[in-house]
Amino acid sequence: xxxxxxxTREDRMxxxxxxxxxxxxxxxxxxxxxxxxxxxxxxxxxxxxxxxxLSSGVKVEVGEKEAAIEVSLIVEYGCKIHEVAKNIxxxxxEAVEAMTGLQVVExxxxxxxxxxxxxxxxxxxxxxxxxxxxx
Length: 135
Known about the structure:
- 43% of the residues lie in helices and 24% in strands.
- It is an alpha+beta fold.
- The protein has one domain: Alpha-Beta Plaits (2-Layer Sandwich), CATH 3.30.70.
- Strands 1, 2, 3 and 4 form a four-stranded mixed sheet that branches.
- α3 links the parallel β3 and β4.
- It is elongated and about 80 Å long.
- The termini are far apart.
């Protein structure tokens, strides 16, 4: 009797870190009350030159089956930051897992600032000035 040896084939797929960072960046930027993704000095200069970097403010660590993601951002003044962070964690996890098949084991949200729009500050100053004049 002859024994037949069956070789198993292991196909592999590698998704670039930049692809996962882009997916996470898009999911984060679509979340409510996110003003901007925080970029380092190099990305900041690139954005000033008109190059849009969708993975700006996103760091990823990718293994064969898992990914850990960290996003840094600025939120709108007055929002509930903890709710924004939980929403982002959910959106990023869902988007990355659905598109890549990787299990997202961690999504860290770093809120680096709060955006106070100049227009709203200007309106408040005008209102204060009007009140002072009326008194």
